[in-house]
Amino acid sequence: MPDTAELERALSGLADRIATLRDDPDPGAMLRELDAAEELVRKALSELARSRRRRDGGSQREQKLLRQVFRALPIPVIIMDTGGTVRRINNETTRLLGSPAGYLIGRAFPLLVDVTARAAFRQRFAAVLHGDDSASFQTRLAHQGRAHTVRLVLSRLRMPGEPQEMIAGVVLPTEVQLPEPAVQTGVPDDAAVLAAARRHELLSRLTGLLLDEESLREPVALLRAARLLAAETADWVIADVARDGGLVRSVVIGPSDQPVGRLQRTVEEAPPALAPVVEQVMTTQSGVVHEMLADDSLLGGDVLQAMRAGSLLSVPIRADDEARGVLTLVRLRDRPPFGLADLGLMEEIGLHLGLAMRAQQGFQRRAQAADTLQTGVLPRTLPEIPGFEIAAVYHPGSGMRAIGGEFYDVFPVKNGWGFVIGSAAGRGEEAAAVTAMVRNGLRVLSVWEDDPGEALRKVSDALVAQNTGLFVMAAAGFVRGRKVRLASAGHHPAALIQPGGDVRFSEGGGVPLGFEEGSVPATEELTLSAGETLVLYSDGLVGSQSPAGDNYGEQRLTEALARCAGQPPGAVVKAIEEDHRAFCGSHAVDEITVLTLRRSR
């Protein structure tokens, strides 16, 4: 391969021959000289490539040596660009800060400076950037639960391959404080006390929210908690819930002051299984905090980059050892990052959420079971009784007392018709099961028994024998012609509306069913004239309260019934409903049952 001198001589000879051809052009000679020129150019390119490889190889070896020296320096060194973003760190820096290089590179170094010292750091950083050769000052670094009092030296430098100047930060540790139990000395740190008070207030507000009655009745606890956290401590809140062997994204709340609709829909539609941090927390059942995000794929894809996320915190939602989901919080880059104190608080909140979700699911299961049983003890339609008009209404009520055991029924008996109304002294599926036993037992016994009191007595003995622990207040009547044989087992007295508007009550009383063996209900016989209406009502009606705490009571019921003289049973029922609604307003009420019979002829 010719050297550079030989190439220069060959090029000179080619130039002379081309000059001769211009005076006496010869096509054949011109082609030969063109071939020679092509060969000369090829040799020149080959030599140039070899020269570059020699130069590049030397430069690469030098850079490798410099990088090895940089990594092995026994003092922490950080290389930042002019914006304060970390571009290089050495091994001693990772040891001091407790994070791998990949965790910090690309992140803003000022976030590592204690909040109280950031303003002073930025001032000195700007001075070095705009003229000063270097600056040496004492500051405080805080990272991974550690606090370091250090002397930081900032200097300008230009690095090979970098188009702009860099800032080198040399860290000279003077004091390292590891997280240990605080020793009470002197006046407490006001900032620390205020932060602890805010965390306590947040936890207190969340606990009250989760214990709210509606949070147990409806699946709103998680959504309400997420809204509170988004308002108080995070920019993004994401909740993934375990269902059918997998995770389902249940709640996504973004910043309320930013147009993030499209990004929020993207996050909502993203499968939680593709988010590495969610999978990690669900598997390990342990929370994790990323004070400075080094991996934008933690939530899958480029979601964190689109959010402009600066720090992330993710904790399990669990009840005891049972995993119920993962709660993830994100803060933007312009906010202070999450720390270990935030992680501890959110892990406790995750436990509270898990317990609330378990309670809510248990409550709903019991409510569904009770509703199913309740449906089974209420007649779908009312039969036609010769000579009588009938109407009834049942309201499940609202609030925690909505799941109860009230019932009514109308059924055929020997030589006539029977009816019953009652309520169990309890709530939930157990109370509904007991009322079903009473209803069905009374129907069966009424085939043989002529007296409702005797039928109720045998049902009561059966309840005592079953040892249910519940008792039932009930009123039952057998209708034969114009006469009504009425029996009461601890129930409110029935009301009788007369055509002239007078209202009188039956005797009522008696011992509730299931209270003691051998108890005999109170019985009496009524003779209904045409136009008279018999009204039976539950304890939920007269015992309900207004927002001011007053009882509805039998006195108000009497006034409402007096206004219903001469009206059909359906109108009576409607009038009672409207008067009760006006009395209670939006106040939570118990179950209400009303049964009316009117002698039509």
From TrEMBL:
Question: Which PANTHER family has this protein been placed in?
Answer: STAGE II SPORULATION PROTEIN E, STAGE II SPORULATION PROTEIN E-RELATED
What sequence ranges are listed for the domain PAS? Answer: 62-132
Coiled coil segments of this chain: 4-54
Q: Does the keyword Isomerase apply?
A: no
| NCBIfam families xref list | sensory_box
Record key words, sorted = Coiled coil, Hydrolase
Record-given protein name? PAS domain-containing protein
